[in-house]
Give the backbone structure.
Amino acid sequence: MSKFSDYNFKGQKALIRVDFNVPLDKQTFEIKDDTRMRAAIPTIQKILNEGGSVILMSHLGRPKEGPEDKYSLRHLVSHLNELLGFSNNNSVLFADDCIGTDAQQKAATLKPGDVLLLENLRFYKQEEKGDKDFAEKLSKLGDVYVNDAFGTAHRAHASTAVIAQFFPKEKRMFGLLMENEITAAEKVLKKADKPFVAIIGGAKVSDKILILENLLEKATDIIIGGGMAYTFFKAAGGRIGASLCEEERLDTAREIMDKANEKNVCIHLPGDSIIADKFANDANISSAVSTEIPDGWMGLDVGTMGCDLFTNVIHHAKTILWNGPMGVFEMDNFQHGTKTIARAVAEATGKGAFSLVGGGDSVAAVNQFGYADKVSYVSTGGGAMLEFFEGKELPGIAAINA
Ligand code: AMP
């Protein structure tokens, strides 16, 4: 593979896999959040500045059977023009089909500085199936393949992985966004300065087993919060009332605690909880020791002691990974724990720690509470980042490296 920043794109047609899977308004097709589009602009801009041209390919939504207007990438053209600062006489071109004559002709006649956006890749079933012929057809459109779609790097799809084999090594590379994601993730997983504190939250133990097991090999401390903490309390013989619990994961929780002991990894659970008599913001609210929750009550957030303990552990960290909220942060009355952790991560970062926030809900939380620019890195790839931290090789990364 080549390094994107070292590559000169003059006269080259770069075929870039971007993640333009943005939420659209159902009626007006207006873009509700353009974060993913903005994230790809530096990569596109570098190529254009050097006298190259760009062919963009992406998926959008989950079309079932072929083309559907509501999933057309055409809805993104005018906003892409704005983001690139294009005027009427130099606007983004659009191909109604990602393969076929129209796309080929438009790609063939691109001039330096031009941008062509292809129609939704998932209008073809072959995309998700990782079909080789489909990937080869796409590959013919460009001279160089750039993968900048970290959000889909854990999928072995035609445009994210299979396509790479049709480009010689020096003509395939990661884009700037992808490079940043990989650098941040490797800094945590492979080169973490100690103490390395991992904060894992969210609803279910079952979704986080692999990441916990992998982190037992790397982290100094693991903070476990959110709904999943109660399976651990129950496994240790605690009374957890009506809190979330995965009965079939009690053994897993015990095994994780035993392994942590063997490996000298400190697991921190919230000693107290904010409890409620129903799963609602207007529930009656109280607090309790997390192993003594009365029947009919459920733990929906970390209590005061838990917040203090977690803050203290986080303040001593040199490396921090955060995935998953500490409570039901979507409801005002149960967001204190998640907010406290977001603040502690920001404070530790301010004192020199490297912090990475990855995974849908914790990213939403740092954004919601205004700490996104006070942590070292916020990942754009939920599922992909999770799989990376589970220790899996991501197909989108492996294909470029091969
Ligand atoms: P996940 O997708 O597994 O990271 O879980 C995120 C979800 O977990 C969020 O929607 C939270 O509201 C939910 N959650 C966090 N803490 C709790 C809790 N104590 N009880 C129930 N749900 C929770």
The chain has two domains: 4-174, 183-389. Residues 202-204, 207, 226-227, 244, 299-300, 324-325, 327-328, 330, 361 surround adenosine monophosphate (CB under 6 Å). The mean pLDDT is 96.
